[in-house]
């Protein structure tokens, strides 16, 4: 397909979004001059312009295209031509427009954009969704085969009004406390991050009327035709009867113009092929195809489909981990899920949701994803309750954090997995400063619904509540006991050991010749027992023996600490008893003194009367 240089005549849908479903209107307009004359009031769009290509080497670029235009991080760098001010309707107000470049810049914060699209399907569980399928399919664009991403769910689907709201920036009808989506931004930015173009098929039944709709968000179309506003062609059908009847909002020419644009800029050049895409949706559901996937700086697809037939991976991240594995020679470390979720969609999806689904599956490339909660795999776990200080008037809440030690070998794996409304926001968040050994091997899991996630759902807004939570998690890391059971030294161990040895040296120097004294009897308050290293070469001592001795020493340490605590409690009880006795004695003394005064007064009165 040769690149489009001139703007063509097209009927577009004017989307007027609001937070109330009843306020959303769809008005089809006939475009008499150019695309720039009548633009969307609520703008939408999708990714950049790459042409699809094979899994390793993309085909030759069409005329006017460069490698930069197909690389996500450079796709926004194109010259903006002269813009035209759209003519206002009679009585209409001026409105802000969104340039297609904004769609690109808005998606730069995403890394694992798959999560947003899976969230939409999970939110449809309340409407009967039982699965979401994520797969790679092969399509043909510009007579060249290439990979595309498929997302298919059997949720409630979207009618024409809801589809237009989905395509609008900032609109969200998800008001429930259980739904994940809330900003009305995820679909646009996530599809943009994965590929240049996306086509949406949705089938739904609302108020007894069955409809099916098609919408195209094409960054390729917007860029090549030089648009300065986001144009989204859409068509709708009424399928309540035996045939799919077009839903006409103004004229049939408007509807046909939208269809023509969709056929020209989508992988489906015939209307029959386009309608066949509804066959695997069923009576209700949504199908999303993202194509013209992005390339990296080397001209290779960012997503790797061939490394694992049951997975989709981020190519550059996977290569980086492979290099690290060779350097560190630590197979166990690289196989841990905290590292694999950086580049493996299957690993990421397995931890993406905290609670396991009862009647819903994520099916990745034909195989269901097994959900995984690392809290079930911790050693010596304990639950810590934290009650955040929410704003006055807000409902009080408490957060339970499960914290423990990982079972796997690598000790530098640590951090908290923080969820929000069942969805993972920050995986393995290390609250300690880089380079600190405190908290190595300590992993926690919590659901923090009292703080708000960022718009890309990969971090939290840094509010005062977030800062207080971070400080509390740091305290939990320090408070985590039983580190000796894992072979770790507790905080301050080295200083206590040094102090103990110094005291032993001072005590031994004060003894008479040949005298002996047990420093442990003289130092009941010390937490750390004597460390006696066996004679001989340290290398000859087995690891198992060292671990066993380490555990025994720390158990003795805990016993002494417990005895010390018991003694302090006994002393405190005795001191309290003594204070009570003193108060009683003082009270008795005051009573006795008052009786003596009354007796003296009576004797004095009797003597005066006798005289």
UniProtKB/TrEMBL annotation:
Q: Name one Pfam family in it.
A: HATPase_c_3
From which residue to which does any coiled coil extend?
557-598
Domain (Morc S5): give its ranges: 343-479
Q: Which GO terms describe its molecular function?
A: ATP binding; ATP hydrolysis activity; endonuclease activity; RNA binding
- Cofactor(s), names only, from the UniProt record: Mn(2+)
Q: Which organism is it from?
A: Gossypium anomalum
Report the principal subcellular site: nucleus
Under which name does UniProt file this protein? Morc S5 domain-containing protein
């Amino acid at each position: 397909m040769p690149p489009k240089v001139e703007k063509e005549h097209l009927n577009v849908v004017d989307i007027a979004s609001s937070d109330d479903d009843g306020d959303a209107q769809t008005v089809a307009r006939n475009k008499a001059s150019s695309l720039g004359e009548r633009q969307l009031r609520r703008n939408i769009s999708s990714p950049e312009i790459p042409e699809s290509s094979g899994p390793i080497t993309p085909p030759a670029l069409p005329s006017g295209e460069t490698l930069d235009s197909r690389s996500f991080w450079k796709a926004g760098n194109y010259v903006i031509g002269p813009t035209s001010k759209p003519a206002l309707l009679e009585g209409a107000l001026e409105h802000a427009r969104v340039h297609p470049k904004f769609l690109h810049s808005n998606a730069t914060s995403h890394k694992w954009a798959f999560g947003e699209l899976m969230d939409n399907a999970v939110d449809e569980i309340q409407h009967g969704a039982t699965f979401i399928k994520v797969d790679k399919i092969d399509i043909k664009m510009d007579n060249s085969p290439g990979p595309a991403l498929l997302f298919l769910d059997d949720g409630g689907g979207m009618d024409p009004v809801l589809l237009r709201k989905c395509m609008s920036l900032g609109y969200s009808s998800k008001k429930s406390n259980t739904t994940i989506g809330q900003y009305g931004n995820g679909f646009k930015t996530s599809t943009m991050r994965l590929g240049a173009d996306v086509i949406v098929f949705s089938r739904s039944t609302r108020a007894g009327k069955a409809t099916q709709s098609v919408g195209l968000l094409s960054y390729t179309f917007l860029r090549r035709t030089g648009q300065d506003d986001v144009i989204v062609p859409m068509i709708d059908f009424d399928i309540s009867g035996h045939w799919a009847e077009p839903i006409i909002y103004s004229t049939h020419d408007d509807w046909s113009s939208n269809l023509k644009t969709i056929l020209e800029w989508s992988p489906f050049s015939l209307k029959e092929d386009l309608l066949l895409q509804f066959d695997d949706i069923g009576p209700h559901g949504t199908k999303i195809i993202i194509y013209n996937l992005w390339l990296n700086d080397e001209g290779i697809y960012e997503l790797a489909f061939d490394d694992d037939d049951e997975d989709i991976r981020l190519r550059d991240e996977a290569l980086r981990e492979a290099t690290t594995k060779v350097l560190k020679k630590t197979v166990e470390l690289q196989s841990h899920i905290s590292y694999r979720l950086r580049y493996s969609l299957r690993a990421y999806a397995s931890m993406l949701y905290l609670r396991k689904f009862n009647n819903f599956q994520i099916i990745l490339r034909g195989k269901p994803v097994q959900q995984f909660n690392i809290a079930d795999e911790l050693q010596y776990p304990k639950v810590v309750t934290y009650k955040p200080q929410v704003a006055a008037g807000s409902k009080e809440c408490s957060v339970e954090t499960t914290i423990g030690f990982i079972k796997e070998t690598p000790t530098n794996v640590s951090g908290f997995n923080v969820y929000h409304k069942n969805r993972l926001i920050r995986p393995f968040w290390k609250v300690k400063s880089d380079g600190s050994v405190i908290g190595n091997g300590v992993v926690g899991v919590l659901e923090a619904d009292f703080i708000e996630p960022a718009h890309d759902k990969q971090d939290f807004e840094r509010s005062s509540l977030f800062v207080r939570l971070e400080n509390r998690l740091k305290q939990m890391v320090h408070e985590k006991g039983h580190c000796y059971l894992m072979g770790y030294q507790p905080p301050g161990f080295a200083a206590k050991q040094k102090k103990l040895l110094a005291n032993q040296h001072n005590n031994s120097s004060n003894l008479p010749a040949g005298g002996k004294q047990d420093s442990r009897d003289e130092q009941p308050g010390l937490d750390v027992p004597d460390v006696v290293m066996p004679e001989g070469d340290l290398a000859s001592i087995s690891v198992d023996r060292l671990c066993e001795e380490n555990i025994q020493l720390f158990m003795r340490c805990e016993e002494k600490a417990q005895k010390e605590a018991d003694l302090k409690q006994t002393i405190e009880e005795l001191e309290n008893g003594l204070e009570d006795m003193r108060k009683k004695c003082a009270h008795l003394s005051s009573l006795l003194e008052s009786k003596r005064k009354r007796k003296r007064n009576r004797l004095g009165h009797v003597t005066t009367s006798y005289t």
